[in-house]
Prior knowledge:
By secondary structure, this protein is mostly helical.
Amino acid sequence: MTGPDLASSPGPSRPARLTAMIALAVAELLLVIIAYQVMASIECRLTEVEAACRAVRSMTARGLSILTVMAIYFWLRPDAYRSLTKTTGDTPGNARWIWVHFAGLALIFAPLALFGVDEINKSFLPTLLFMGLGSLFTILGGLFWVTPLRSWRSWMRSDSYLLPFALLLGFLVPDLANLIRPVWEWSTLSSLTFFLVFLTLVLFGFQVSVDPPIYVIGIEDFFVQIASQCSGVEGIALITIFMGFYALLMRPDLRQKRFWLILYPLAVFTSWLFNILRISVLIIIGARISPEHALNGFHSYAGWLMFTALALGVVVVAHQARWLHRTTRPHKPRAALRADPLSAQIIPFIVMMLSGVIVSAFWPTPAEGYPLRTALMAAALLYFLPALRGWCALPSKTAIATGCAIGVLWIVTAPVESATSNTPAPDALWIALRLIGTILLVPLIEELFFRGYILRRLNRDGLIWTVIAVTVSSILFGLLHDRILAGTLAGIAFGCLYLQRKRLADPIAAHMIANALIAIMALLTEKWALI
Length: 531
């Protein structure tokens, strides 16, 4: 199997810079979540500055909220988006800013390479410095690569400065949720939540133990206390904030009374029921799978992800409900996303990263959730099949040889625990889906993103620029793997393969061959840690 040849495909147009940077921001946020909340697993109570650590951890929720608010803003104000893309097309930012952006991203991940994932908690102060400085460079580099500061000022002035207000709202969503929370902290709500969680667990067939005066409930040896903040107030606050933002943007057309008196109570009720199901699942995970995972993994990731998705879904429903609007909006045909080369290079990678966050939230051992990841990655690639179909090409002999060499070196240099661990063999379905994902899907998605987008975007005329482009894309690629150095060296090899004939078929084929050799070795020796 070979991959697409992007050499003949046109590069992203200048107006696409905004779209590309938004997509990159999503992918990078998910990569940070994977790196610092899954791989490194920072425990704030073990650091020397617990308050600062918790503030940093809240940045994940803030970043997610900012991206959600931006999605709503540009979706509801297409004229503003078209105006901004025209501005970025007429006055693109200096290309050097993209280097500032990726330099900042490298600083964010530098502590993983300098201190190791197991020592982050003991070296949190320098980690905080790296992450703070890196975040500043990443944000400024991205903004000014899209368009210069003067163009941002001009566009924001013409749009009545609504976008900065939207971004500030997104940043403050966690704080606003805490501010609104006391309004919903009723003892009756906590009691009813407690009773319905009990009823849900009983309906699932569990023997439930309770202590009603202090709202403690659990099954087997795992118990939780349903405090007032666990009664769904966080989800209700998010629903309130996002629906309020929607009502503000759509105020001339929206039937406000119907919106707030009919849809809003339904949305709040749905969010509350959703939270009851979430608590029930958390208790089941804690009792049957892992108490630590239930409290630290599922509780941390699933809450914000699920409530944000629910709030965004409510906004979509509101926008599609004709009875909530005074006018009927004509349907405007849009360009097919499926055939867009830029989207095909970035969005599958976002799906791959998001699937990693999901399985980390629901499975104590993320590898057990790999079948879901395989399904989501396959769906993303099938969706963009029109953009990928015309780019196939046979790989070179050099690509085949390189893939074999990387695969062999990866096996030979595997850590002792990976080479010697002998975990129980998984079932046949898991093995089949893992092989499909490892050999076919992951190489295609990663090469589309790291070589097809990042390396091509950074590469300019001249040897120095080429070396920098390969190095940056390879380091970012290495950070995606547990073995950072080995991953970076493999990324350099794949980058050189791409540059040799300026097409992705070669690095994709080499990546697939390397992964196939590693997977075969894991299959023959039952050393599943290799993959």
